[in-house]
User: What shape does this take?
Amino acid sequence: MTDERSDQERVESRAHLLPEEAAAGSDDAHAQAGAILAESDAREADQNVAPDTVLERRTSDQTVNPVEPPD
Assistant: This one.
């Protein structure tokens, strides 16, 4: 399977409108899906693409301080 075919499959899968999108309407669901996936790919490749959004990748033990049990 080529990357191009994979992209086509992704667009086909995403082209089915979500309820909110269907309510708003879409002139070209395939073009809309392609744009959404391209933006998603860009954000995944370079997390600084959208500087006002931050995606943190931490485990739960990095986010909380362990609580010591009482003696």
